[in-house]
Task: structure prediction
Amino acid sequence: MNTYPIHIKPFGKSAVLVEWPFDIDTNILDDILIFKDYVKLQGYGGPEWEIVAAYNSLTLVNNQRELKFDEISAALHKLYKERKEGAKKEPRHWKLPVCYDLEFGIDLEELSQQLSKSIEQIITLHTAATYTVFGIGFLPGFLYLGGVPRDLETPRKASPRLNVRKGSVGLARKQTGIYPQDSPGGWNIIGNCPIPIFDAQKENPCFVRVGDTVNFYSITRAQFDLHTIQAEVGIDLLTKDN
Amino acid sequence: MLKIVKSGFFTTIQDSGRFGFRHLGVPVSGSMDRAAAHLANAMLENPDESAVLEVTMSGPVLEFTKDTWIALAGANLSPKLNEVDIDNHSVHRIRSGDRLAFGKHIDGLRGYVAIKGGFETEEVLKSRSFYKPITEKDHLVAGMELHYEEVSEFEPKITHVIPEVIDRVLKLKASPGPEFDILDSKQKELLFNQPFTIAKENNRMAYQLQEILGSHQHPMLTSATLPGTVQLTPGGKLIILMRDGQTTGGYPRILQISEDSINKLAQKTFGDTLYFKREG
Result:
């Protein structure tokens, strides 16, 4: 377990922000998640608290009352010093299918020119990497996945699209992600994942947690159609490796 | 049942919010002007989390099929019961067959209709607040019917409240946000002294402001945002996140406005003027 210099800042009257060094680093993320689990056990786990972890920060929000910043800041610094790694959580790894058909991968041809790579090479690179979930936000169930190979790094589109189709898999700089619903969006779209990432009707609406890892594998158009029907009738298609 | 005869411009069901799912990217939602919704519920002695109608600017036409009591608060949209003018900020007896409609927009932007016992619409992730696609609909449409319990025995202890005057020029109470210090001293001075104008882009998710504070290239890693967070885009625009605002963002968070200021801002719209008043 690494120890980092952390900074605690007020964030309005009912929230505080804890920041780790400015880096996209799975060691930092691990430390953030260990600290999150620890503070939850030490008085910040009740229903009045919500804790949001992302990249290099942890935000603690109290939904019921205003906080005394000096007190909570001192308490959190103390908890950070004495934090212990809880019972090691089962590492969770998800394998998600993506159809890279040009019908879905509407930016593949343009990217192929931009990156001087064939579409097959782009798919190979995208499916070979293992990604870490560094955050969930922007939309319900939108995963910020870090670990994009340098050869696939590409800026956002100059002007965002008004509507990106649900399931679209996008690339933007060092991140890749899946649009969990139809939405405006500026990422480069390379395929579509037929597995719904977010389902509000489920008690746990999102099966992925911050800190999980994800791999993509390529499926054909026919497999995509089959998976879409299976998802509609509620057949569980998830593959989790431990 | 409450029958939606006409939907109005944008009428939704809201309660006190959807808590416990921010870490999965689910916005809090809930009444934009929580204070007004609270007042409407309080007049009926409803629990604070009871679901109310949030009526935006132009009102719906609603028909009641059961006796009950309602309370109105927030923006004054000239409410009428069976075509007779009735008071805003007051409690009204409703008989089966009554029609509630609205007329001229007098002040504010969002009016609230509370009903004795609350509207019993579908709860998704522990809240009835509309937010698509968590809820199927993002606003009410003509033909929909909302369930409520019939109430005949009720003696309101309060029948009228005197509303807070809506300031013509709004002063938002704001404390420095996590990235406040990326601003230079001149920008900080401007931020707390110059008037800002609400842009056309204003809705339940966010209010954009027209004035440009100055562009920046401050690098950010996506981090949590809250209702009331004021973001600075790379182009220098200010965006104030509201109740349906996203739970994380990649723009510097230069200010955080108070809960009370979010409520007041919810009653303002395109072209209105505001100032940020520093506290803390």
Observations:
- The two ends of chain A are 21 Å apart (CA to CA).
- The mean pLDDT of chain A is 93.
- Chain A touches chain B at residues 9-15, 17, 19, 22, 24, 47, 50-57, 59, 61, 63, 134-142, 144, 181, 198, 200-201, 205-206, 210 (CB under 8 Å).
